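Write out the 3D structure for:
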Amino acid sequence: MLLSKQYATRWPVLLGLLAMLVLAALAWHFYLERAAYYDLAWHTYVYTKTQALYVQNRRFVAIVTQWPTLMAVRLGLPLDQVLRLYSMMFVSFYLAIFLACAYWLRNEAVALVVVLLFVLLSTRAFYWAQSEMPQTLVVLLLFYAGISRQAPIQLKFSTLALAALVPVIIFGYPIAIIPFLFLWSYDWLLNKRFRDKPYYGFLVLAFLMYGLRAMLIPAGSYEDTQMTFKPNLIRFFPHYLSLESFDIFRRLCARNFIALPISVVVLTVFYLRQRNWLATLRLGLVWAFVGGYAFITIVTRADYTEVTYLENLLLPLTIFIAVPLAMEVLPALERAGARGKWLAAGLVGLVLTVRLGVLWYQHIPYTAYQQWLRQLLAYTRQFPERKYLMYPDNVDPQTLRAGWPWWAIPSETMVLSARHSPDSVQTVRVDWSIDYLAEQGANPANFLEPFGVEPASTVSPVYFRFPQTPYRVINSNPPQDTVALNAYIKAHRGVQLALLDSLPTTIKAGEQTTIPVEVRVPEQLRPLHSGTRVDHPTLVRTVFFKPHDWPSDTAPVEVPLEVDVWQPWQQTLRIQAPQQPGQYTLDIGLISRNYRTWPVHLRRTITVTK
């Protein structure tokens, strides 16, 4: 007998619907943090250039979110509206899946899982919206919402329609086969489908599609080079727990992923109290998939430990815990009487509220990154070229913002600057090969995309109208020989450093904080060079001194200027207080690395407390 897929009260579904609407409101409000960031900014540029979809690696599930955005571009809608629409399309897609599960397939339990997929563990992944991983997982949940209502599986048109989703799921993301196997195995145990022959057909179809997908992966392609589990398994044996990726996962479980260990404990207690072998097998299934999938991800990404990317890869962990929680634990709690019904609804409301608050709070580094891009665009507007080259060393040198993928900055700056007018467009290409790119960019007929040099004529004039100018390098080098460098330092003693906000007079021992500093250069001495590709680049140094300028227990922090300073430039610096309480002097100054300090200082007295 099938378990009921509907809750005793309407509250879990209504709370889930409210949470999805809050996600939609966040996607509307933070549309620049999502759509003018990383892949979505690049995709938007590609739509304007090719007037075609941009489906990568045969992940066809992305068509659902790409097609409406492409239609908006083809209709010539203002770029700002295109960006907002693109941000909204993802949540709209997920909301449609939620409504289909809850009201069409009448499977409220899986509908709640759809909501939990985007709030229970997800934080950074909300702002890195383009990933096909969550898009694939919601299609998988739609498939499961329909299949889990049939035992045995009935051979009818709706079943065939659900089966047609299996290729979309398997092709949607390389590791989608793992959450598929979990749901198939879980329902096989839950509904005792041991003799349900059509049910085995879904498993066969999934493996056939997985084999076909593997056959179609070209040698040397992105997906081929990312299949690193087996070589890393051998390479790091047996020191898997010492990998940085494991350390990041451990820290996630103590903070943003705190629901994961709590849910595993809850499920363990729940299943052990049932005292039957099928419940024990389901518990083993949860433990095996949570532990096994986390291990596979940690080992596969041992050398690539960007937190946003890891968090996105770990999203299937939500499926492994949320499905049994929604399918079994919540209904069991509701059966505990009237109090149980309200307790179940209250727990759902509490979890969704807390996690939505965490997700909202996560916007800070993404908003800060957008503010930095706007500051950069406002600063470079003083130059006539509107096309610039920049070193990666100078982009957010202390990783204070969510500017992880610097390759995307050319398209990010384009869509951000041109969203109200194509004539205001600017672009900043960030790369190590500045000399080569400067040579290519000297020809106004060339346009420097993130992945190559293209004719400027390929850029859509409807959305981006650049002048016929060359590219300008905004990170030039200071003198390299020490004689010229000494004269350069002496001439620039008039450079001024100013705090834009009041600095706190007290700070806790070991605490990190940030301070905005403005760098001002006298007109006759401009620019102050920011290039780092020399032996003695000019850096901004922050250091704490004890009385009489004795060194403290905190090492100086030296970071490059982000741009050549012509007009006043504002740069945010991270400082870390000494470990020992006491009276200190914070010194902010310029230094030529591996050579000498400059006679340019800003000093403030700070008390470090316990």
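Residues 281 and 313 are 26 Å apart (CA to CA).
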